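hey all, quick one before standup. I had two proteins in the batch that finished overnight and I want to keep them in one place so we stop losing track of which output belongs to which input. First protein below, input sequence then structure tokens straight from the run.
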Amino acid sequence: MHLHAEPGRIRRRAELAPGSRVQILILKTGALGDVLRTTAILPGLRTRYAEAEITWLTATGAGDLVRHHPDVARVVEADPKDEARLAELGRELAATRWDRVLSFDDEEPLCRLASSIAGTGTDGVLSGAYLTADGARTYTKDVAPWFDMGLLSVHGKEEADRRKVQNTESHPAIFARMLGIEMGEPFLPLPPAALAFAAAFAERTGLHDDGPVIGLNTGAGGRWESKRLPIERVTELMNELTRRREGRLTFLLLGGPGEEARNTEILGSASSSVRLIDGGVGNALLDFAALVSRLDLLVTSDSLALHMANALRIPQVAFFAPTSAAEIELYGRGEKVASTSADACSYRADADTSTLTVGRLAAAVERVLP
């Protein structure tokens, strides 16, 4: 049974005086894109609590997405499935008197961790998911606008799905409203080594030698097959944009681990008139981000690359079929091309992508491309 916070067990959010020194702990471990987009709350927290010291607990391998952020004082990494490590971290983190604990993951081990840190009726102030005394997962009322649309929803899956489809508010807007802060943008500072990697790649490949550079990140992880743009449509889109720009255009093919076969097929299907450069699929996380930072525009699925482009202020055209387009904020630097099929935002692995046509995508690129 899922219940909201029990009165008297987890203290209601205290009104901390703006400018007071506070200790804030953020629990957000995955997925990578979700971690990065959640950095949009950091400017608002810093404005509200100017002297705050923010610690971020995230998944092993995701730390680089927050490690270099100027508003994050400390990053702790852990495997969310390693319960022994999480228990150890719970004891370690519970030694600090936290003023705010923001728990944004709904998996049981992380809910247990949040409870072990924030306690029940202690000095900490918890917002988010946790375990009740009887071991049930739940969430505090202040974060209901987000969790009511998720798997942990107290309203059940059918109502959560309905709310997800009906929602018109973006992720950063929802989180700002829940936390009582101004809406911010995600930010991903790139270290010198990553910037040097991208500069060397651009020099070696002549990336910027012929017209604007459009990144193509049209695949997705294994879970959401229908997030992807079919390969033949990617080929058609390159042909159409090359025709419209009379050849003065370069494409950079992007992807992650597991997309080697897909990207090899795209490279093999490209017309000789299309200037297409392979960005590789084995790049380190921040090296990949540095390649994104070199783009004039990114055409992307709802994926990590989308959130990197946002965090790096890169214009983009993002397309959506199984996931929510409304939830994504592009901050006025791009366009969203959403499926108009009946199963749009259905979170189905086989959602219909046929309405994501080359014509719609090419027109959006023409409007956004500098």
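OK second protein, same deal, sequence then tokens:
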Amino acid sequence: MQEATHWLTILRLVGAGLGVSIAPECVRTIASPDVVCLTLRDTKVFSSIELASLVGESRTIVERFAHIVKALNAE
């Protein structure tokens, strides 16, 4: 068993035949041709995405984006 924290490293380990991994869909775009990515069907897995910004952020674009995210999250 190998452990890694970066997806490129994980994909290289898989490509070298040192294991398998369950990864988010976006990892497929960086997988090398020697790695097979299969879609898991009928799964009930959810992932949280967080919004982070600097304390005291005052740029209008950041404030508006945060407002949109908060509104969508309230639905």
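Flagging for whoever picks this up: Residues 60-74 form the longest helix (15 residues). The CA atoms of residues 16 and 34 lie 9 Å apart.
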